[in-house]
């Protein structure tokens, strides 16, 4: 065991001496390892971070929420018939009430009509292309809206179509500067004045497509007085949240039945609405992530192959340069296995240097994305060890032939070599 650690220490020292003595040659040879490990670990890290963010979104929105509207989020493998989806009738408050009355396993049902071309004004400040969400009761329960200032819309305000509004965080900051109290103030949009009753916490855009930071939330019936809510230009979304512990698929089946009866869809005819779930998006993204993962490993594998040839070249040159030293070692009793292990470990150390450099670049970019762009990217311990393991594997692969050739040198011939 002592002999092993002595050989290991010697190999590490020799690897760094090689790096110091032939900086350019070694750097170019290790660059392939660095790029390969960077490609593989960066792809794994970004994909893991995206999956974590998706899981957080699903935990916030709930995996037990159904979104019903004209448009299916995903195709079924056939042609996406947008012209048929566009002509479908929109969801209505009457359908909300029908589901509430006929589906017992529902925790909340609501309706949201979205318009992304609203211009919001306050005094001389004006914001364009703001998302307006005209909603019925329980929208905050289905979407888990958090309030930073004031309160959410009351049931009486929603049912009565009052001109009350909750502002998104970015809308509040841009209109009021973040210093003025917005509560009780009036903002204008859709040709009407709305009284500000609350401000939402900063949230960003979620998987369901709601961008609350750049939005205003107000009563559906207030929007119905100025907008043609039955127009094909709008697609009201009916959101159904299943009760805790209830089978979402069973709730989906019951909701489908209620809507088909309400819309008088005959047996055998296809639905004239689409029921969507976040799990559909998650499953499709997992397929895309799997493809990206394969591409990352393929590109990284090519770079690692180039790097492996580079390290093998270094080790062949090193064996030739140290042939007399190898002969002397074997002449005084060094075993073939000791010589083989020495050069093999040296190749592994060189490969690890390149691999660690690639991992460090990934860590640096992760920090930049996390703190500079507010996109949380974390290099997991498992991905770190994958990078280390792959580096060791490439080192062994690249160093095994030079190490074997060194261990088989005849000591007499080696000592006499120039």
UniProtKB/TrEMBL annotation:
Upper taxonomic lineage: Bacteria, Pseudomonadati, Bacteroidota, Chitinophagia, Chitinophagales
Membrane topology designation: Multi-pass membrane protein
The protein's name: ABC transporter permease
Family: Belongs to the ABC-4 integral membrane protein family.
Signal sequence annotation: none
Membrane-spanning residues: 27-47, 294-319, 339-372, 384-406
All residue ranges annotated as the ABC3 transporter permease C-terminal domain in the record: 298-411
A Pfam family assignment: FtsX
Keywords: Cell membrane, Membrane, Transmembrane, Transmembrane helix
Subcellular location as annotated: Cell membrane
């Amino acid at each position: 065991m002592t002999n092993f650690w002595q050989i290991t220490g010697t190999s590490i020292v020799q690897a760094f001496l090689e790096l110091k003595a032939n900086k350019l040659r070694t750097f170019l040879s290790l660059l392939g390892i660095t790029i390969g490990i960077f490609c593989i670990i960066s792809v794994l890290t970004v994909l893991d971070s995206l999956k974590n963010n998706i899981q957080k979104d699903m935990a916030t929105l709930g995996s037990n929420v159904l979104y019903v509207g004209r448009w299916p989020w995903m195709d079924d493998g056939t042609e996406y018939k947008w012209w048929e989806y566009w002509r479908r009738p929109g969801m209505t408050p009457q359908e909300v009430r029908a589901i509430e009355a006929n589906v017992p396993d529902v925790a909340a049902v609501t309706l949201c009509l979205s318009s992304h071309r609203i211009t919001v004004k306050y005094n001389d400040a004006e914001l364009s292309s703001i998302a307006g969400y005209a909603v019925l009761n329980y929208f905050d329960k289905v979407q888990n809206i958090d309030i930073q200032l004031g309160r959410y819309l009351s049931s009486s305000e929603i049912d009565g179509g009052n001109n009350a509004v909750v502002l998104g965080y970015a809308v509040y900051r841009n209109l009021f500067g973040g210093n003025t109290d917005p509560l009780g103030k009036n903002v204008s949009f859709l040709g009407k004045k709305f009284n500000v009753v609350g401000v939402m916490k900063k949230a960003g855009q979620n998987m369901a497509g709601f961008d609350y930071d750049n939005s205003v939330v107000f009563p559906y019936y207030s929007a119905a007085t100025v907008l043609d809510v039955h127009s094909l230009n709008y697609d009201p979304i009916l959101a159904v949240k299943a009760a805790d512990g209830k089978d979402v698929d069973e709730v989906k089946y019951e909701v489908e039945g209620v809507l088909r009866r309400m819309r008088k869809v005959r047996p055998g005819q296809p639905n004239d609405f689409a029921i969507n779930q976040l799990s559909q998006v998650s499953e499709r993204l997992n397929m895309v992530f799997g493809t990206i993962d394969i591409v990352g490993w393929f590109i990284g594998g090519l770079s690692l192959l180039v790097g492996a040839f580079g390290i093998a070249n270094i080790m062949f040159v090193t064996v030739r340069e140290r042939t007399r030293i190898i002969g002397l070692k074997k002449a005084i009793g060094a075993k073939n296995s000791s010589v083989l292990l020495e050069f093999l470990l040296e190749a592994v150390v060189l490969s690890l240097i390149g691999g660690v450099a690639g991992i460090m670049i990934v860590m640096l970019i992760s920090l930049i994305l996390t703190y500079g762009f507010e996109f949380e990217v974390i290099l997991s311990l498992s991905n770190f060890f994958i990078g280390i393991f792959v580096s060791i594997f490439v080192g062994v692969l690249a160093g095994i032939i030079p190490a074997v050739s060194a261990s088989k040198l005849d000591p007499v011939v080696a000592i006499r070599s120039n």
